[in-house]
Amino acid sequence: MDLRCFRWVAGLALLCFLLSGCGYFSAQREIKSAEKLLAELRTAEGAKLAPYEYCSAESYLEISKYTLKENSFKKTKEFAGRSKSASEAGLVEVKKKK
Questions:
Q1: Nearest alpha-carbon partner for 72 in 37, 36, 20
Q2: Which of 43, 67, 80, 88 could cysteine-pair with 34, CB 3.0–4.6 Å?
Q3: Within its chain, how far is the Cα of 37 from the centroid?
Q4: pLDDT tens, residue by residue, 25-37
Q5: What is the pTM for the complete model shown?
């Protein structure tokens, strides 16, 4: 009986370990996507043509990187998503002005 209990606890611990890593990697993926959109906005001269959206995207990206270091993966994904939204809005504004 003790061996069965040990295996169950070890399996549960392994499952928790694997699931916690999934949150980290999905949050990192979201940050990379936000960085890519911000880079597109930067090359489209978003700092001059859409300064509000550019600053918002940059700030949200920095906050998401900070929350990743604090191991708050849900908040990281939330702020990275806001950064992506601001970058997309900035790209729309740039296209309107050009």
A1: 20
A2: 80
A3: 12
A4: 889 999 999 999 9
A5: 0.78
Let me know: does 76 contact 64? Beta carbons within 8 Å: yes
Q: For the chain, how far is it from start to end, CA to CA, in angstroms?
A: 73
Q: Mutual orientation of helices 51-69 and 73-97 as an angle, nearest 10°?
A: 160
> Within 13 Å of residue 31, how many CA atoms lie on the same side as its CB?
20
| Distance of alpha carbon 42 from alpha carbon 57, whole angstroms | 11
Would you state the structure tokens that stand for residue 67, as one six-digit string? 């929350």
Q: Summarize pLDDT for 27-70 with one digit per residue, the tens.
A: 999 999 999 999 999 999 999 999 999 999 999 999 999 999 99
